[in-house]
Amino acid sequence: MEQLTQERPNEVPSLAVPVSGFTLLLPTISVAEMVPYRKSRFIPAEHEASGFLGRYEWRDQKVPLLSFEELNGLPRGEVSGYNQVAIINATGVNSELAYVAVIAQGIPHVARVTPEAIQELSDADEYPYVKMTVVVDGQEAVIPDVPALEVTAAEL
Questions:
Q1: What pLDDT, on the 0 to 100 scale, is given for residue 122?
Q2: What pLDDT is attached to residue 105?
Q3: Residues in domain CheW-like (predicted)?
Q4: Taking a C-beta distance cutoff of 8 angstroms, is the pair 15, 113 a contact?
Q5: The CA-based dihedral angle spanning residues 37, 133, 116, 102, taken in that order and rounded to the nearest 10 degrees
Q6: Which residues of the chain have pLDDT under 50?
Q7: Which residues contact 52 (CB under 8 A, 6 or more apart)?
Q8: Residue 61: closest CA among 81, 33, 28, 84
Q9: pLDDT of residue 156
């Protein structure tokens, strides 16, 4: 058993979540669940705030639903019955917030990230909610700044 562990490559199972203008790269352990968007579970925001769509009812909780694109200064992606919602585990920046959610613009897929398969790009400072821009197996993706998303969601 010990020998098997040593021979396994150093990989991080991840999800590539498409949003308008970006592909978010999230370790699978940070994603609580991907769920289909249902209008009946959406509670619109009471006040207009850039990037804040409202709350999404998930497992008897009202999770802040964010537009990752709009938070980063891009046009908000379309929201319809074809979207998915990524429920992301909070990192603990705010003890009252267990999850944040972002609206996906396509079907997420699994990405197995290894040190050999990932390369950092130098333009990561361009967007406030992007921790790092990377290329994984030839595809550009961004690693979202989840703590910053949490801080923003807690303020709304």
A1: 65
A2: 93
A3: 11-155
A4: no
A5: -10
A6: 1-5, 7
A7: 45, 64, 65, 66, 67, 152, 153, 156
A8: 33
A9: 80
